[in-house]
Amino acid sequence: MQYLFDMEVYRFGDACVMEYVVHLVSFTRSGEISRLLWDSKASAGIIKQIASIFISHLHHTAEFVIDGLCVFGQEIMDENDARYPKLAFEPSEVESLNAPLLSALVVHLPKGSAWDWIRAACHASPCLTHLTTSHSCLNVFPVTNLTELNWIHPVPMLQVFQVFEDASNLGHVDINVEGPVVPSSTKSRLTMKSITKVEITSYDHLGEFLEQTEFPSVVDLRVCYSDAWPGAPFHSFLSRSSCALTALTFHGCIVSPAEIVFCLQHRACHTLESLCVQECIPGDDDVLLQHLTYQGPEHPPCSHPNLRMIKLHDMSCTDGLLADMVGSRTYTRLPSRTELMGLVNKMAPARLTEVWFSFVDPDTQKEDHRKDWKRLREIEEMPWSELTIGWPVTDFTG
Q: Which residues are CB-neighbours of 26 under 8 A, at least 6 positions away?
């Protein structure tokens, strides 16, 4: 059983903070989760004192979250913002830190903070497998045993390749790749056989990155904030990787619905169970909805027969097409129970269990899509329906 040792400095006045921390420490156990969070209103002196207490109990800490940028709060600030108090804490015996149980570390610190003790703590842990950080360089951390890496900072492509080459056990990766474009140090493309889930953000260099990598085991792929969609490199990446995706997300990309359909037609996407398109450039989404609509047994094969969750946000489409697509994948358009029990049932897609949607104009989406609204309500209320619908917010008055 794990215990949470939670200290959010911005919730307390300086006078009571230390008494509160000492009280919490008296109840700590092995395998605890420690969290130290602060914002621009926190006192640098109090932060330093609390950090020293956290370090004194590092030997029985399993998960350590230290957030000086308020990433997990409501006041998210840039690491270079001078208003944020820096962590100036430096233990007197940095090299003697002991962290035998530390397996997960989340660390976001303002620029100019002390990192030596964090590096020492990581190197003192033989079982550090999960790392989330906004630090610009991973030389601070040991990466050999990492199985999950969330690197919340734009990183030159060369550093990404270096980490990949050193961390052969990575399974889940979230990276933000920037230039300059460089080749990996391997003689050919960099192949990461261990990675099963990857989120790639790259405003300008997604295509160049994909051209040098292969992820044959990836099943969950998220592509975020690409300002120039690399159609051919993306397809080549999927073909070289010979992967079978179960989840695919396009988030904040400048990619048209027609280009998304072209991606979905790749054999790597035939096994999809989840599809999400969110905050992408508005376009004619009729083509995407028509592609996802099951046309019945007279028009085999069914596209993506395993899809159970679809999230389509900020759509621009003809009224009624969304409901048609959802209805086609909840068996509401099939003629009879007899056919459902026979060949039609075998050829039909899996039933949708979740649909989330919104339209490009939030102020008029309900009025502009009366057919969709009415039909989706009917589908949701059917006695045999197993569908959960994530309805968009339509009342902005509150």
A: none
What does the angle CA 336 – CA 340 – CA 346 come to, to the nearest 5 degrees? 150
The whole-angstrom separation of Cα 225 and Cα 280 is: 8
Q: Running DSSP on this structure, what letter comes out for residue 151?
A: E
pLDDT tens sequence for the chain (398 residues): 444 445 455 444 444 444 444 444 444 455 577 777 777 677 777 777 777 777 777 888 888 888 877 655 555 555 555 666 777 767 665 666 788 888 999 888 887 887 888 888 888 888 899 999 888 777 778 888 999 999 988 899 988 998 998 999 999 999 999 988 887 766 668 899 999 999 999 999 999 999 999 999 999 999 999 999 999 999 999 999 999 999 999 999 999 999 999 999 999 999 999 999 999 988 899 999 999 999 887 776 788 999 999 999 999 999 999 999 999 998 754 444 444 455 445 567 889 999 999 999 888 888 899 999 999 999 999 887 889 999 987 654 43
**3-class DSSP assignment, residue 173:** strand
How far does CA 173 lie from the centroid of its chain? Answer: 9
**Residue ranges per domain, the chain?**
1-142
Nearest to 250 by CA among 213, 304, 206, 215: 206
Give the rounded distance of the alpha carbon of 44 from its chain centre. Answer: 32
Identity of residue 397: T
Of 116, 109, 142, 131, the C-alpha closest to 36 is 109
The residues near 273 (Cβ < 8 Å, ≥ 6 apart) are 246, 247, 306, 307, 308, 309
- Three-state DSSP at 277 gives strand
Q: What distance in Å separates the CA atoms of residue 316 and residue 288, rounded to the nearest whole number?
A: 11
Cα–Cα distance measured from residue 356 to residue 392, given in angstroms and rounded to the nearest whole number: 8
Residue 189 to residue 339: CA distance in whole angstroms: 49
Closest CA to 110 of 141, 76, 138, 139: 76
Question: Coil, helix or strand for 17?
Answer: helix
